[in-house]
Structures
1.
Amino acid sequence: MSETDLLKAKLPDDAPVNLEAEFEASNVKEVLDKLDRELIGLKPVKTRIREIAALLLVDRLRKQFALTSASPTLHMNFTGNPGTGKTTVAMRMAEILHRLGYAREGHLVSVTRDDLVGQYIGHTAPKTKEVIKKAMGGVLFIDEAYYLYKPENERDYGAESIEILLQVMENNRDDLVVILAGYKDRMDKFFHSNPGMRSRIAHHIDFPDYSAEELLHIAKLMLATQNYRFSADAEKAFFKYISLRMTLEHFANARSVRNALDRARLRQANRLFANASKSLSKTDLMTLEAEDILASRVFVEGKLDMDGDEGSDGVID
Amino acid sequence: MMTNPNGIVTQGQFSFLPALTDVQITAQIKYALKHGWAIGVEYTDDPHPRNTYWEMFGNPMFDLKDAAGILMEVNNCRKTFPNHYIRVTAFSSVRGVESPTMSYIVNRPKKEPGFGLVRQEADGRSIRYTIHSYATDKPEGERY
């Protein structure tokens, strides 16, 4: 008896099914709630993920009545500025797909151009295929996917890699979900020159930039996971810092916040060390004060911090 | 080969059983992946038992999570060499070298002529025995 026969035998036409129960059983709610809790803002992204989860869930119920439809295309495209949570969401997506039974393993393989494109003729295909095989049963996340296609160099092997990807995206839809990510304008250009890629991707999700309030919220979450916290003054100072930092160049949303916090921790340690004679309490060790943040060059000179990695030596945070 | 009821080469695991289906192969691959073993696909048209080193079909696959990728390679190999012996080998690195821990044939020629016993008359009345695959009378690539 083939699999479809088995499914047909499963439920009569008038049998009631419970979407709620199915939802509970899949444990997807847990992931979605976690997404809500840990990812601040990103309204459109969350809505879209909910929609996708709903579609997959309904699809599962339909299968119980042997209402076959082609398995949905789940390849996605995430666009947005750096530090807006594309990788994090991709990781959650892998988990959601796993819980709904669309990814057998639910792991995320994150690659860039270097992992896919070879250096000489005949090197690209095995390299790309190896990555694809590793990602099977999970999600292949291609960061800065637009680098795959370099129109200015006609001998570039990126096109070969794209061709193999397209083939796998079409033929092995059940084995692999591909998520492309990158800046919006460059991804648009990429799709413009690769219409085949565009048509094989069903979900284009744009990640908006965070507002200053959201970034402060994110900062507090980050600190909480590291067992730090702001004093009341420090929180105000950090809000001011974010507002200032947002106007400067190389601003990378949550990533800039993380770097700023790392530097604040450095200054806090330094401050504690300077008053080493005083005995310290647990609260002292946990609390970031306003002075730790106000010492940043962003305040003093209205420039980027050079004592950290931010913007110095061409390293963009 | 007269003692072998199916008249087929019996090498590696499961070789006395009927040919494995793709579902069964997937289950075996999953077992290997669960143990973290690397998996290679190999083929040959010389099935002599002492022929240990078969040709590799692509590189052995490390760090895979899912069986689909390996089954894809097996099917590619079957398409390329429909009339060869193809085996899947799993390698364990526990001993510091990649040593085979599983090996089973997943594809064989339609007709397997088997082996003949060759007697060589040596010094005095002693006789040396060896087995010879009928298939290898023909040159490589034309055997099956």
2.
Amino acid sequence: MARKNRKKNEQGFLFPVPLALTLLAVALLALFHICLKARADALGREIKALEARRVVLRDQLKKEEGEWSLLRSPARVEAALREHGLVMAWPRRDQIVRIICAPASGRARRLEPSQPLQYAQVQKVVMND
Amino acid sequence: MTDRDRNIRLEWLALALALAFAGLVVRLVYLHLLTDETIRQSVEDKGTIVKPILTGRGRILEGSKAGNIVALNVGMFDLCADPALLAKSNLTGQVASSLGTVLGVTSEELRGRLNHPEKRFAYVARQVPDDLVHQIMDLKTPGIFTRETTLRRYPQGGTMCHALGFSNLEGVGSAGVELIADKYLKGSEGFLESRLDGRRREMYGWRVQDIQPQEGADVYLTLDENVQYMVEMALDRAMEKHRARGAWAIVQRIRTGEILALANRPNFDLNEFRTARPEQMLNRAIGQVYEPGSTFKVVAIAGALNEGIITTNQIFNTENGRWSYMGKILRDYHPYSQLTVSDVFKKSSNIGTAKIAIQLGNERFYKYLKGFSIGHKTGVDLPGEEAGLLTPVEKWSGISVSRIAIGQGVAVTALQMLGVANAVANDGFLMKPYLIRRVVAKDGTVLYKGAPEVMGRPIRGDTAQKMRDLMARVTEPGGTGTKGAIEGYQVGGKTGSAQKPTAGGYSETDYMATFVGFLPVQNPEISIIVTVDEPQPFHTGGLVAAPIFKEIAEQAVRYLDISPSAQTGLAGP
């Protein structure tokens, strides 16, 4: 019976190189996957934070729009005028300058107060005719 | 250690590992395949979040150049509690007391809401402002949490309240434009289904469904807040001056039928609609029918002129103010012996108008009533419109024609009566009133466009011209509506002072004072109706309603840049 080669046994079990490479590749892929996942999660959190921020800003914008509308409302304008002692009145007859278009020159000229009144007339479109 | 010992140890280790792995597999199989479905579902649910994503209702914007927002949604929070948890922690009383102080509610009231140990949910307060919510959440009270919600805000409070209407706490339109345009305004909620991590934070990468909400469309009105303000201020002053029960007014563009202002008194604050009384919420301008009185004489005289059976110069015997017809006495407010048709209208003679209507005849008069859309809804885009009351001609008594002609035994809304005046001003064309100009989705798509629509043409253009001339005389010296005249503009109008019907007759003290008119007469642009319910001490349309008309019209013509009538000189003081 032939004796066992002890020198050979001392080397022990040799891990197959292809398997080792495969495992290394899998490990690298797993690491890469984990990195990507972590990055995706971080981006997800960022997107969520931005989404929340957008909602807050949209609400804020709406509130500001409402407030702006209120400030421009006639009641507020009138109250502001009163508060600052400003009075708006329609002009008196002598404060009005009436201008007509002179056909000859095509330029506007001023009417004397003694002249009969003329008003610019807007061409009206009668919708139902 | 020998090789054999080492091998045995390795074998035991392998066996132990195999057993542990097998145990894990068995547990895995048990959990996935053999566990009770409800337990598995409960575990699943705890790691899952399913929630609707709220969307705001669309905005409503008024029709002036500024295009101000008159209704919008703002984000708010509902403050909620877990009464069972509070009871378990024995914190109900303490929480009620501390939150009551912050919210301005009595602790007894809050305790009443929270003292339900059998419940896992209760509202502490709804639609709480942000700053208050942050203040409360900083207390870190166990069992107290928030829910996002939206609140419908009306920045201008009571302005346009009857036209705008309101939406309820659930965001459903319940009155006015809010109700009629609900399908455009409400939008559609989004939906989110996702997984939670160990700290119960939603994981973006695990979203199963993420459907974004579709915001409601914006509704643009024809109502102009500046004209509306003029009308509302005038009505407020009139209510105080005449100690009236109510007052309402409408301003309309004649050529298109666009409503520029619609106001009623009493009114209410839209932000506090829950506390408003029913009489404050009634849109009287379209929802209250009343006998129109003398303003209705327009219909009978326009009909008779259109049929060519009378001329404006034809003389009628007005019987010195007292006339018996079919055994019933008819009186005039001011007695006259004889009047031309023009003067019958100018002086508002009941007897003269009744005689004209009798000459017109039941059938023909009824045809004109229908032509002016009396007894039918105008179809304005507002809910709660009344059709008015018009008895079918087959059921008329012998005197019906004489009474309906002077605005008795028939009931209309202010909007219908304004429609009659509009038709006269608009060459006989009856326009459909509308106040939604357009509806625009968030992406800019126009979903709806309000456009002028002709409902009919009850009278010819030449008849309308004659009627305009007659109505212009009402505001001239000697007419009943002189207080409706405006310097610089020729105003056409008609007064009405209708006794209010009571059981078995008419009230001697309660009147409806009305003035309906348009201007400028030769090129009519706007029409206005003003009605005052039970004014005191004066009760005639000429004394009560005409000055309000004047107050509104004077400001409106300047604001709307309507040219003065050339013949009557300069507008203004």
